[in-house]
Amino acid sequence: MIFKAGVANHVRACRARYLADSFWKQVRPRPRTLASQAGSGQQMTAGVMYNWRVAAVHNALARRGKAEGPLTIEDLTSLGHLDQYHYLGTEACDELIQVLGLEPGVTVLDVGSGIGGPARYIAHQSGCSVTGVELQADLAEEATALTKRVGLQDRVDFLIGDFADVCRSRAVLERFDHVTSLLTFCHFPNRADGLKVSWEALKPGGTVFFEDLTLMGPAFTEQEQRDLAEVVGCPSVTSPAVYVEDLQKAGFVDIEVVDMSAPWKTWTKARHVGFRQAQEETVKLHGLSLFESRCAFYEVIDRLFQGNLGGVRITARKRGVAEEKLYRGRASTVSTGTTHGTPSLNEFGITVDATYSKY
Ligand SMILES: C[S@@+](CC[C@H](N)C(=O)[O-])C[C@H]1O[C@@H](n2cnc3c(N)ncnc32)[C@H](O)[C@@H]1O
């Protein structure tokens, strides 16, 4: 395994105690009736806040005269964080394409695909095919609708439900060349299981590209633990070392971890400041309630990155068929290190005691 950019000196202990249940399961999809409400500046209540993203996309497209009909990829990527829910927007997707060497004909499984922005952009730029899995039905349905409007429906599709359940029940195992995930595993109550399913979904020799939150300081403070669990919905943020252990247990090899904390810290600060500066336009488009709630959220993220929160980009690999056989073959003989006690002759005709110990 390789650590890059100073991740090596992290501290393993993660004393944070988190909510046992998934945050995302608490924010089940709500009826899709917000587009017009938010657009007319009506206040949204907390109870209907969670599908604000679908409504916000509708509002923004309507404002540009594109409420219906065909769209270009740029129509969507220009919506910024309404299309790409991770950090560094399409720049991160460009790097993903480059690192994995994506090209026409290869298949990608995107874990926690949101409204489908990364899946569409990656498929459009590289020519590959992408299947997204998304827990929130309203996001996945909107992802499918937007994908059709940009004409990518033959190469990009979305499955609705919990990643592990969907993969295990829909026979998508051993089907993909690559598994990607941008800021999703941090939301899993059981990240280790998510990593195991990712490994199972890959063809032998397949690779992964994950971006995720991690503990970078010595330990989270109590306030940080609360913010992560209750505001950000992230019950499984650990140090990179614990992450790597989970990856190894899932079967991954050739693990590389790149520290993304510095660029993400700068980016999340700029997002917070920029969002506040755009108050007038945002309130006009999406309403005051949404503006205030997003401000509060972006402020918490900004503060967490000033503290013990950081992030990583992880790439790793599933062994190929021949490599797996070699690995298992070695493992099956390493304990005895003998040729079953049968003496043999060496090239000089001298008996060799085959019960030597392996080095
Ligand atoms: C921060 S968003 C990132 C979305 C997308 N990767 C992007 O960058 O635009 C995390 C997404 O993961 C989804 N998610 C969380 N837990 C999930 C699970 N167990 N199975 C599938 N999706 C999940 C959430 O609903 C949310 O859309």
UniProtKB/TrEMBL annotation:
Annotated ranges, domain Methyltransferase type: 109-210
GO molecular function: S-adenosylmethionine-dependent methyltransferase activity
InterPro entries: Erg6_SMT_methyltransf, Methyltransf_11, SAM-dependent_MTases_sf
Keyword Transferase: yes
Family annotation (Pfam families): Methyltransf_11 (PF08241)
Keyword Transferase: yes
Keywords: Transferase
Top-level taxonomic group: Eukaryota
Designated name of the protein: Methyltransferase type 11 domain-containing protein
Species for this entry: Polarella glacialis (Dinoflagellate)
